[in-house]
Write a structure and sequence with these properties.
Family: Belongs to the WD repeat LST8 family.
Helix content: 10-25%
Keywords: WD repeat
Shape: globular
Number of helices: 8
Protein name: Target of rapamycin complex subunit LST8
CATH architecture: 7 Propeller
Largest sheet: 5 strands, antiparallel
Pfam families: WD40
Strand order of the largest sheet: 12-13-14-15-20
Structural class: mainly beta
Number of strands: 32
Distance between the termini: 17 Å
Organism: Bodo saltans
Strand content: 25-35%
Length: about 500
């Protein structure tokens, strides 16, 4: 099966584009409603299309010009399905689907039958706007209309949780962001699944890292807001410790172990306008296991089912917040090489940001560099390295020029998690003075669309970016790492284009 670019529009069409010629090679009509979300299976044989109250599953491996629908799920009370994705089974026997919708429900579906079966339904009571699965398939993160983020453990959806366990219907963690109670618009995991970017209607991007990784950086002058001693982490650990003591009490009495997290504010009606420029550089996330709608954000005594290794391992903390735009951010994406962050905005532009090496570097590299066996030369190199990257200059060596109209096979990532780790740079020594090691550097934004930019997708090599917009156009940008990006326009849709995917045969590049 050849590689293609897949786009969906409010004209109720899904188009498959040839990336070389820019012409439409297949066309799928979704007659039920407008299209809100797309997802292609890992084997590239199935395409899930989500609309208003309906999800259809298509066999795109078919040689037919018009791929047939092999499964359907309908729920009129769901409203718009706002996100959909594949959840691979551990057995390798296909995938499940996850879908979130305006009725506040997260649904797990089995598409292996003509009428999709509903395996689980988790109701949050708040309209859900987006969802994404980590690269390793362990975590699912959802966002809501009131600015709340929920972290779910995927294995609990797939396996039988057993009697007495309710972890499969409750999130591991819930977060909100003080000063930004606007809708969560988009979520993106890093290629190594070690941090998350979350974009909101306020034009902000909140960067969250796992607490276990933040703790490893404690010796490198990480800001206090990111250290293990943060109020969120301390309150959480304190609640766990107190609960364990209460379990060992001879009388079996449960104590009230509620800790208030400073800075928490109640959620409110989402603000539909961008924030006023105020120079704010860093906001901590207010983390809660239970966040009442009309009280301060609190960390309550966790029930026994939350005292698990998963709960402790996947605790997220906000390490950086940046104002990227002054209008809604509609999509955030991290490049496969882990170096670039892209933001699609209602101001008609695509923002580009270089990711600091402290986020791009995996934990294994840190442990290796802190090991006594590290060579003196490596230590000397680490002492002279700068962790906060500078914008790419026009005089820097550039990758070979790519025309957007090239074969997708030339967009090979040529690296996996191990090579990413080997290419990462060491931390500065203890005592080094750093203003902010989580600082992102802005590159020249991409300009060319004349209406809202809804979605984007990086090529596997991270040098090509495909964007779609309300101007009905698909743009393919090349050389996005440089200060002279180029773009070609694909024309065919007659209404706003809101979704884009790259259907690439990654096994040809050594990916699994």
């Amino acid at each position: 099966m050849s590689s293609s670019i897949i786009t969906a529009s409010y004209d109720r069409q899904v188009r498959f584009w040839d990336p070389v010629s820019g012409r439409t090679i297949r066309n799928l009509v979704f007659a039920d409603s407008q299209i809100n979300a797309l997802s292609v299976s890992k084997d590239r044989c199935r395409l899930a299309v989500a609309g208003h109250g309906i999800i259809r599953y298509y066999d795109i491996a078919s040689s037919s010009q018009y791929p047939p629908a092999v499964a359907t799920f309908e729920c009129s009370s769901a409203g718009n399905f706002t996100a959909i994705g594949h959840m691979p089974l551990d057995s390798g026997a296909g995938s499940l689907l996850f879908a979130c919708s305006e009725d506040g429900a997260l649904r797990i579906l089995d598409p292996r039958q003509a009428s999709m079966s509903l395996l689980k339904e988790c109701t949050t009571g708040v309209s859900m706007t987006c969802a994404t699965l980590s690269q390793d398939g362990r975590l699912l993160i959802t966002g809501s209309q009131i600015g709340k983020v929920s972290v779910w453990y995927c294995k609990s959806f797939i396996e039988d949780a057993g009697a007495g366990s309710t972890i499969s219907t409750k999130p591991l963690q819930e977060l909100s962001f003080p000063g930004d109670h606007t809708a969560i618009r988009s979520i993106s995991f890093s290629p190594l699944s070690n941090w998350v970017a979350i974009a909101t209607n306020a034009g902000k991007v909140h960067c969250l890292a796992f607490s276990k990784d933040v703790h490893h950086r404690d010796g490198h002058n990480v800001p206090a807001a990111s250290a293990d001693a943060s109020p969120q982490r301390s309150a959480f650990l304190s609640a766990n410790s107190q609960h364990q003591r209460s379990l060992s009490d001879a009388a079996g009495q449960a104590s009230d172990n509620t800790s208030v997290v400073s800075g928490g504010q109640p959620g409110g009606t989402p603000v539909r306008e961008g924030p006023t420029p105020n120079g704010s550089a860093l906001d901590d996330a207010t983390t809660s296991l239970s966040t009442p709608a009309n009280t301060q954000a609190v960390v309550t005594k966790p029930p026994s089912m939350l005292l698990s290794k998963e709960q402790k391992e996947w605790f997220l903390e906000c390490v950086q917040t940046m104002t990227c735009h002054y209008k809604y951010i509609l999509k955030v994406a991290i490049s496969p090489d882990g170096k670039l962050l892209a933001t699609c905005c209602a101001d008609y532009t695509i923002g580009l940001w270089t990711i600091p090496k402290l986020l791009a570097r995996p934990t294994e590299v840190e442990d290796m560099l802190k090991s006594p066996a590290a060579s003196p030369k490596a230590s000397e190199a680490a002492a002279t390295e700068v962790t906060s990257p500078a914008p790419l200059a026009s005089t820097a060596p550039l990758p070979p020029a790519l025309s957007p109209k090239v074969s997708m096979s030339s967009m090979s990532p040529q690296r996996d998690a191990a090579s990413l780790a080997a290419a990462s740079v060491a931390s500065p020594p203890v005592g080094a003075k750093l203003a902010n090691p989580y600082e992102f550097a802005a590159l020249k934004p991409l300009q060319g669309h004349t209406r809202w930019v809804w979605d984007c997708a990086f090529s596997p090599c991270s040098t090509v970016l495909v964007t779609v917009s309300s101007d009905n156009h698909v743009r393919v940008w090349s050389n996005v790492h440089t200060d002279k990006p180029k773009s070609d326009i694909f024309v065919g849709h007659t209404k706003p284009v809101v979704c884009v995917l790259l259907d690439v045969d990654r096994t040809r590049f050594g990916e699994t």
